[in-house]
Hints:
The protein is built from one helix and 30 strands. The protein has 356 residues and is an all-beta fold. Strands 1, 2, 3, 4 and 30 form a five-stranded antiparallel sheet that branches. Strands 13, 14, 15, 16 and 17 form a five-stranded antiparallel sheet that branches. It has a four-stranded antiparallel sheet with strand order 5-6-7-8, with no helix packed on it. The longest helix has 9 residues, at 2-10. The two termini are 25 Å apart. 50% of the residues are buried.
Amino acid sequence: MKSIFLILLLTLGAQAERFLIGTSTGGDSKGIYLAEFDPKTGKLSDAKLAAEAKNPGFLAFHPDKSVVYASQGDKVSAFNYTDEGALTLLNTAPVTGKGACHLDVYSSGKALATSNYGDGTISTFLLKDDGSIIPGSILLRNPGKSIHPRQKGPHAHGIHFLADTMFVPDLGLDKILAYTFDPTRGNNPVRATPPATNVTPGDGPRHLAFHPDKKHLFAIHELSSHAEAFTINGAQLTSTSRVSTLPEDFEGKNTTAEIEAHPNGRWVFASNRGHDSIVLFAFDAESGELARKAVVPCGAAHPRHFTLTPDGNWLLVAGRDSNNIRVMSFDPESGKLELTSEAIETPSPICLKFLP
């Protein structure tokens, strides 16, 4: 059966790009799925189950090995993958903290970390040479709270490595923490108490994205529906622009989810859940100004995640509540973003990652 599936995928053509789909398995989903996208035609293949797993939400790839990692609430798992996208479980390890929701891999491939929304902790793991996870995470804690009803305690929501700095947006604290990280220190990889960048009370920072020049960082604020641009100076961040993700006439309920910078550095994208749209911002690296240019309905209910295609000409949007993946076309020169008619059914998709 697997060989037939791989043959069907290959019929899309040599130019097709394979991607993995992390899901929530409370309904019809069985785990991690695999599909292909053809950047010449804008067409998707059907999604097929690649590995059974419980709630394999966010995914991250090892920089050197053919290994993908999945955060799964109470644990993190490593899977070997082939060029065709076939997955085989390598190993798992408990996160110790509660509710691992996001993860990232250190640039050397020697460590990974998860943000644990449930108790606001951060789990860090060392990795073996083959990419497998060494059990026994180091748990980092940051007490505190902020003003929103969902901010009665810490809720670490993202993990983002940049060189030797581990940035952690904490929705509950209204802070972006920045740890100095060194996996060569064995069981004590954090070398410094994190400085904290405070955001506007009630913002609820969720995820981050880096500009291609690595001198600017973008944050998506879940609770206030704002995006914010910062300059980076080591572990210190300085805000340069903060902009709403919503049209001025929108009056419904909304939370934001994901943010991503275009490879050319001129554009930044974010997703709205409630308004169910993708927001396009223009970014000026000299001034640090972020300007909202368009808010485009994405055809997906609760777009918890989206990703740019490797060529930067398309967006794939994951509709968690509509059980689908939609395709949007993008012109990097003009900034024109449009929803296409292309869509595939996928159970509860919450993360999309193209294979390296």
